[in-house]
Recover the amino acids of this structure.
């Protein structure tokens, strides 16, 4: 435990910065499953959040899609087995325009710039 008050709590938690990684490193082969390649990424309209989106899916009768929140207002929209996402978007253009600012095909590198995560911590002084 540090007795000196010259460093902030964040500085103490972060500790000394390492100059170079000395642990093991691994190379992995990237793999994108087929269902992911058949998905699209939608940017939610400003007033829409993920909970409202789930409600809109039920109200709009869009049971043929599955959504996953990516963060930063982005949602991965995947078709149910046997469906084609392009056909779903084309036949439900009005619904998609009300919910999403834009819809584009999923590509490797389609990722959010940030994501909010809630973590429960016990025993941490506020």
């Amino acid at each position: 435990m540090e007795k000196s008050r010259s460093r902030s709590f964040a500085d103490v938690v972060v500790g000394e910065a390492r100059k170079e990684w000395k642990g093991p490193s691994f190379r992995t082969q990237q793999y994108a499953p087929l269902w992911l390649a058949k998905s699209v990424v939608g940017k939610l309209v400003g007033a829409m959040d993920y909970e409202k989106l789930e409600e809109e899916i039920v109200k709009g009768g869009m049971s043929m899609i599955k959504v996953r929140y990516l963060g930063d207002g982005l949602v991965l929209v995947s078709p149910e087995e046997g469906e084609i996402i392009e056909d779903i978007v084309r036949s439900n253009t009005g619904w998609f325009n009300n919910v999403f600012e834009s819809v584009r095909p999923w590509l490797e590198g389609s990722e959010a710039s940030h994501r909010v995560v809630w973590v429960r911590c016990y025993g941490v002084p506020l």
Q: What stands out?
A: The radius of gyration is 21 Å. The helical segments are 9-14, 34-37, 50-59, 85-91, 93-99.
